[in-house]
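Below is a filled-in request sheet from our internal design queue. Each sheet records the structural input a requester submitted and the sequence that came back. We keep these sheets so that new team members can see what a complete request looks like end to end.

REQUESTER: design group, bay 2
PRIORITY: normal
MODE: inverse folding
CHAIN LENGTH: 310
BACKBONE (tokenized):
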């Protein structure tokens, strides 16, 4: 009985060993492999996505660097190029005379801006360069507007030159209306703004610019036309707002707007300056009205000179 039982059990054990029972091992192996492949694929996709993100970020950073560096490099190039056309000895002589002497190298009297009433420099900036303290020697907005007006009118109608550019032209360049001259103006102006303060440039301009009848500098012009001074505390009476506006109105065309030769034109040009000051908020309505109604008295001997010349 026992023997037969053993004989029956042995084949069953052998069969079990030789023919493995069905299990989930293969399915589990495949599942692990599929999960591993899926993870690798996700990591690859995630890496590609991150790479795309980094690439876009890098592109944006590069573009920003270009937009920042190009103007800086351009300005540095202009500043360096400006020294080519500057007569440094002439510029130094003007600067020194304005800073330390009471007379320009040409022999005209010097009054510094700090010694003048504020409306003298304000009347100048209002009509010639109201963004003077904001630009680096050249005004991109003013230049763009000038080009647009010139194209619209079909001829040279508007200058677009800043005070610094005008000073550069008066000191070192000719009056030829050429594109190359304008580029030189910009380069010289950039160089001057790099080496001198705004106040220095304003002082040099006001004491060097031409006011007609052979007079250079606002002090020489004030004495010539009105027998007055631009100094707040001088031996002569100080020019008032109305007279200051008329002086600055001369700068567009000194001989054409001369209060000696053409008093009506001079008065109209003065009104342009005063209205511009009011428009900018630099004078009140009361100050505007008062200046418009202030009589302008040109020095009597100058009037006689003008009549004799006519």
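RETURNED SEQUENCE:
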């Amino acid at each position: 009985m026992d023997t037969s039982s053993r004989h029956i059990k042995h084949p069953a054990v052998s069969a079990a060993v030789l023919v493995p029972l069905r299990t989930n091992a293969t399915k589990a192996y495949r599942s692990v492999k599929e999960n591993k492949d899926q993870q690798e694929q996700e990591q690859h996709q995630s890496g590609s996505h991150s790479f795309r993100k980094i690439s876009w970020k890098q592109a944006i950073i590069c573009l920003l660097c270009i937009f920042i560096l190009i103007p800086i490099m351009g300005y540095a190039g202009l500043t360096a190029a400006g020294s080519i056309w500057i007569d440094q000895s002439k510029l130094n002589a003007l600067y020194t005379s304005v800073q330390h002497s009471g007379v320009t190298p040409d022999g005209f009297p010097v009054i510094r801006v700090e010694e003048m009433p504020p409306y003298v420099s304000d009347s100048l900036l209002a009509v010639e360069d109201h963004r003077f303290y904001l630009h680096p020697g050249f005004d991109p907005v003013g230049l763009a507007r000038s080009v647009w007006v010139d194209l619209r009118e079909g001829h040279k109608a508007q200058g677009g030159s800043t005070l610094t550019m005008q000073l550069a032209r008066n000191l070192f360049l000719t009056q030829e209306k050429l594109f190359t001259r304008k580029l030189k103006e910009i380069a010289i102006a950039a160089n001057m703004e790099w080496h001198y303060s705004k106040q220095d440039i304003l002082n040099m301009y006001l004491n060097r610019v031409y006011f007609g009848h052979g007079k250079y500098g606002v002090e020489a012009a004030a004495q010539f036309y009105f027998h007055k001074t631009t100094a707040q505390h001088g031996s002569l009476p100080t020019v008032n707002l109305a007279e200051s506006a008329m002086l600055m109105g001369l700068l567009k065309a000194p001989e054409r707007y001369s209060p000696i030769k053409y008093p009506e034109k001079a008065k109209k040009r003065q009104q342009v300056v005063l209205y511009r000051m009011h428009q900018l908020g630099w004078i009140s309505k009361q100050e505007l009205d008062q200046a418009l109604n202030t009589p302008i008295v040109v020095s009597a001997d100058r009037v006689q000179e003008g009549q004799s010349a006519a």
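SHEET NOTES:
- The CA atoms of residues 39 and 181 lie 68 Å apart.
- Residues 1-19 have pLDDT under 50 and may be disordered.
FILED BY: M.R.
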